[in-house]
Amino acid sequence: MATKGEKKSEFLRHKKEIEETYNRKLEALYELYPEFKNTTSSINGGSVSTSSYGSLKKVLHQAIDRREGEFTSRDLKKWISEIDASVGAAMTPASVSNALARLKKEQKIEQIKKGAGSSPSIFKKKN
After folding, report:
1. What is the DSSP string of the chain?
2. Is the CA virtual torsion 62, 68, 70, 71 positive or negative?
3. Quick check: 2 pLDDT over 90?
4. Which of 40, 74, 80, 103 lies in the 20 to 30 Å Cα band around 86?
5. Which of 52, 123, 30, 41 has the alpha carbon at shortest distance from 82?
6. Which residues lie closer than 8 Å to 90 by C-beta, 6 or more apart?
7. Which residue in 83, 19, 27 sits closest to 55, CA to CA?
8. What are the pLDDT digits (tens) for 43-101?
């Protein structure tokens, strides 16, 4: 039976292989469709690299500022994907949840209804 250390090294090896394959396929796609190779997002009239520090937070604020009314974590992920597909694709359910918790702590949003089971929490932008 493999030890925890062996499992971790195997996991990291597989992860690296998958990331390399993904990057090769993405580059091939950009070669076929160079007009869609956009590594920056327009945020508040400026241009922000999606890989730069803080870009997620900026896209997150932009997504919420553009909307009115109540929303769920699923809505937020969809909005982020509409603004920047690469950031949206990279967001896991945990990162969306952490982002919502941060915004709630910063008092940018308020939780209207706590989720339970398959029913998601509902949030609203604070004025």
Report:
1. ---HHHHHHHHHHHHHHHHHHHHHHHHHHHHH-GGG---EEEETTEEEETTSTTHHHHHHHHHHHT--SEE-HHHHHHHHHHH-HHHHHH--HHHHHHHHHHHHHTTSEEEEE--BTTBPPEEEE--
2. negative
3. no
4. 103
5. 41
6. none
7. 83
8. 334 444 444 456 777 888 888 888 888 999 999 889 888 888 888 888 888 888 888 88
First to last CA, the chain: 56
The model's pTM is: 0.55
Q: What angle do CA 35, 38, 42 make, to 5 degrees?
A: 125
Tokens 């339970």: give the residue. 116
Angle formed by the axes of helices 73-83 and 55-65, to 10°? 110
Amino acid found at 50: T
